């Protein structure tokens, strides 16, 4: 990915981060406990919200994004270790994590079911999976619009699928969905899950 993309991403997300997104992220990340794994940490926007964890192991496949996160790690109260890795192939042992956090990342993962299964592998029985994602909308016209725009959008935005039904993917992968909260007319969801294995 081009080196300019992390800067564009931060600039585009800044107005949203200052409003409700910031509260949604903070509320979700505060629920993480024990040893936490963050999937696709991007520029490190979530790092300041970790409170009740021992440490965070954070993965990101894009080295340009990771460079932007270093400043945020220095400000964190929690130990954070960064790994250049993909969600579909995690470099961790089975049953390692108490909590897993992923925010605005499942839209870009090439093989989301495989990633969810891999996350389940490295999660302890009963571990939490905490997601904040934009998803395919239920409204027919909006859903069709998302589908039509996705091919162009993927090229412009690092593989982002506007029409991905992340909630259904989570259910299909074997996670136990405990709570779903809808925002902005169903365009964004928080999904709280438990590893039943």
UniProtKB/TrEMBL annotation:
Nucleotidyltransferase among keywords: no
Keyword Iron: no
Residue stretches making up the Methyltransferase type domain: 37-130
InterPro entries xref list: Methyltransf_11, SAM-dependent_MTases_sf, Thiol_S-MT
Domain of life the protein comes from: Bacteria
SUPFAM superfamilies: S-adenosyl-L-methionine-dependent methyltransferases
Keywords on record: Ubiquinone
Name of the protein: Ubiquinone/menaquinone biosynthesis C-methylase UbiE
Source organism per UniProt: Planomicrobium stackebrandtii
